Amino acid sequence: MEKMLPEALLKLIKRVEENFPEDPKMVQLFVNCFTNTLDTTVKRLPDKTTYIITGDIPAMWLRDSVAQIRPYLMAAGEDGDIADMLVGLVKKQFFYVNLDPYANAFNQEANGNCWEHDETDMGPWIWERKYELDSLCYPIQLSYLVWKNTGRTDQFDETFVKGVRRILKVWRTEQHHEEESPYSFVRKGCYFTDTLSRNGKGALVKSGTGLIWSGFRPSDDACTYGYLIPSNMFASVVLGYLAEIAGEVLKDEELAAEAESFRQEVRNAIETLAVIKNEYYGRIYAYETDGYGQYLLMDDANVPSLLAMEYLGYEGDREVMENTRRFILSEGNPYYFKGKAAAGIGSPHVPPYYIWHIGLAIQGLTEASREEKLRLLQLMRDTDGGKGMMHEGFHVDDPSKYTREWFSWANAVFCELVLDYCQIRVKK
């Protein structure tokens, strides 16, 4: 399999081998995970766009597809075919955004396949129409990272410009969700986290706070309170990216100014409304709030998360960020679990006492200590359940009990942590 890989990817594998000379399992696990996404989930289409399934579900999520290919950004500057694949993914994503900016997952063709026949404005291209703020952040992030890592700018075409203007319109609308939003979502006969309350409108939020409403979390679970803070943090970061793209590449000073003003507005709202004084941890960021004073203190392993603040590029109050990290990596966080085999962050999306390889990888990617990065890598290596791949969640006492046999995002973020340990990182 390695011999069929592009030279740029083989060079990365060689660097991993050099950094783990006495750990053949770590190297093999990296090779398995690194090649799996490219071999099994990526499809180059005749129109030169790229379609990427999430793994064991035959659909493309805007979020997951970006996360799945991040490790290849580190080779894209040396390999034109990999760069073409990434540009093709940007173009496919913005094609979908222009079809429906409220949808989170799409079909390869307009075949009408879907997760469920939900009560919302479905179409034949849409696999699922859960509005998730982060789903619109990821295409902007990818377009920017492709530019920074390859120098390519052909992804910033008319479809991109039309798409980012639609995103800005949706985000402005969802700052006033109660009064202005056309979006609603109802799923019948399901667990309550798979649908929105109030006939599909979601829990009441205060409009005009500067925060952007999201119906669902990156786990695809419904928000308890509509202002999901990690996703607003991500939005503020990518608005900064958009301002830079508009100014330096598109030469559109009006769009650049609009994006920068919006970035500051969202960031100011986060720092004003999402910082909570906790008796044990001091000032910390809430996971969700409604703008009226209600809030939720927790974290979820799915990205964006509070744990991923620095990974995503959010620059908040340093003391608050450090306090928040202490909180979410403790049992004060209701989704932090400790057991015989591991300790880490899980998710209400899976059963209790299941922690996520994604969460462990993000913990490592946001650690300063190289020793701690290695400890987390070894923990991930030892909790693969004997399958030679990463999983979604695994039981803290028994890694052979896990959810999702095949989860490409988890494989990719493990690879990113391995490369990070080898001091190979995505350029931002």
Automatic annotation (TrEMBL):
<dbReference type="Pfam" id="PF06824">
    <property type="entry name" value="Glyco_hydro_125"/>
</dbReference>
<dbReference type="GO" id="GO:0005975">
    <property type="term" value="P:carbohydrate metabolic process"/>
</dbReference>
<dbReference type="GO" id="GO:0016787">
    <property type="term" value="F:hydrolase activity"/>
</dbReference>
<dbReference type="InterPro" id="IPR012341">
    <property type="entry name" value="6hp_glycosidase-like_sf"/>
</dbReference>
<dbReference type="InterPro" id="IPR008313">
    <property type="entry name" value="GH125"/>
</dbReference>
<protein>
    <submittedName>
        <fullName>Glycoside hydrolase family 125 protein</fullName>
    </submittedName>
</protein>
<dbReference type="InterPro" id="IPR008928">
    <property type="entry name" value="6-hairpin_glycosidase_sf"/>
</dbReference>
<keyword id="KW-0378">Hydrolase</keyword>
